[in-house]
Amino acid sequence: MTADTVAFFIAGLPVPQGSKKAFVVKGRAVIVDDNAAVLKPWRARVATAADIGRTFVGPVTVNLTFYMPAPLRPRWDVPAVKPDLDKLTRAVLDGLTDGGLIEDDARVVDMRLREFYAHDHHSCGVHVEVVA
C-alpha cells in the first residue's frame, strides 16, 4: 500500500493560536482570539494553500516544520522561545481544516513538529506534509 501525501510551503510569519478573551455584548458572552488581527490572515493563508480540491477524511499523519525569524543574538541554535510550538500548530491545523484538506483536525493521529530559525537559504513560514 502506497502512502498518499500532500506537501507544500506557506510563506509568512507563522502566528500562534492560543489565548482567548471574553466580554459581554448586549447580554451575550462573546469569545475571541486574543490576537485575532494577525491570526485571521495567517489562518486564511493556510486555508488558501490547503484548498487543493481534495479532502482527507480518514486518519492522517501531519508533519509541520516551522521557520521562524532569528533574533540578532539568539540564545540557542533553535527557536526554543515563544511562540510555543503547540500554539503555532493549532493555528495551522485549524487552517488545514478551514481549507478542506483534512475533514477535521481530530483525524490527525500522528504528528511530527519541528522548529528552526529562518536563514538565507529558507524564508519564514511552515512546511506542511499530510500523509494518509
Give the gist of this structure.
Strands 1-6-4-5 form a 4-stranded mixed sheet, with helices on one face. It has a two-stranded antiparallel ribbon with strand order 2-3. It has 2 helices and 6 strands, in the order βββαβαββ. It has 132 residues and is an alpha+beta fold.
Characteristics of this structure?
globular, 132 residues, 60s Ribosomal Protein L30, Chain: A, two-stranded antiparallel ribbon, single chain, alpha+beta, 4-stranded mixed β-sheet, 2 helices
What's the arrangement of secondary structure elements?
Elements: E1 5-11, E2 20-25, E3 28-33, H1 36-50, E4 60-68, H2 85-98, E5 108-117, E6 125-131
Parallel strand pairs: 4-5
Antiparallel strand pairs: 1-6, 2-3, 4-6
Helix pairs in contact: 1-2
Report on the structure:
The protein is α+β, with helices and mostly antiparallel strands and 132 residues long. It has one domain: 2-Layer Sandwich (60s Ribosomal Protein L30, Chain: A). 22% of the residues lie in helices and 34% in strands. It has two helices and six strands, in the order E-E-E-H-E-H-E-E. The strands form two sheets. A four-stranded mixed β-sheet has the order 1-6-4-5, with helices on one face. Helix 1 crosses helix 2. The longest helix is centred in the N-terminal third of the chain and has 15 residues. The chain is globular, with a radius of gyration of 16 Å. The mean pLDDT is 92.
